[in-house]
Amino acid sequence: MEHEERPWGKYFVLEDAPTHKVKRIEVKPGGRLSYQYHHKRSEVWTIVQGKARITLNDVDTDHAAGNVIEIPLDAKHRIMNIGEETLVFVEVQLGTYFGEDDIVRIEDDYNRE
C-alpha cells in the first residue's frame, strides 16, 4: 500500500483510479496540514477517529467521528488535530487530476512550498 510520512503525520492511498483517489490520513495530536486549495479536485472528508478543527474558506468548525465535510473545488481548507489521540479521516478526492503537485499552499507550519 502506497503511503507517505509527513511532518504532521502520515497517509495511506487506499485506492487510485482515473476518476477518484481515496486516502486514510492520520494527524498527530496538535498537528495540522497546510492551508491550501486545489484547481483540479474537490474532496470529501469523513472523520473516523479523534477531534478535528477544519478551516474552510477562513471559517473554523470543530468535528468528531462520523462527521462528513465537503471541500469544493478551489476552496481554501485545512485540518488540525485538536484532541489527545491521533486524528484519522478518510479523504475521497474527485476530479480530473490527483497528483500532490495540485496543492497550492497558502500557509504552512513546516515551510513547504
Supply the CATH architecture: Sandwich
Strand content: over 45%
* Structural Rg: 13 Å
Q: Number of DSSP helices? A: 0
As for the CATH topology, it is Jelly Rolls
**In CATH, what is the class?**
Mainly Beta
Number of domains: 1
- CATH H-level name... which superfamily? Jelly Rolls
Characterize the structure shown.
By secondary structure, the chain is mainly β. The protein has a single domain (3-107), classed as Jelly Rolls (Sandwich), CATH 2.60.120.10. Helices cover 0% and strands 58% of the residues. It contains no helices and 11 strands. It has strands spanning 3-6, 9-16, 20-27, 35-37, 41-49, 51-56, 59-64, 68-71, 77-81, 87-95, 104-107. Strands 1-2-3-10-5-8 form a 6-stranded antiparallel beta sheet, with no helix packed on it. It has a 3-stranded antiparallel beta sheet with strand order 7-6-9, with no helix packed on it. A two-stranded antiparallel ribbon has the order 4-11. A hairpin with a 2-residue loop joins strand 1 (3-6) and strand 2. It is globular and about 35 Å long.
What key attributes describe this structure?
mainly beta, Jelly Rolls, Mannose 6-phosphate isomerase, 113 residues, RmlC_Cupin_sf
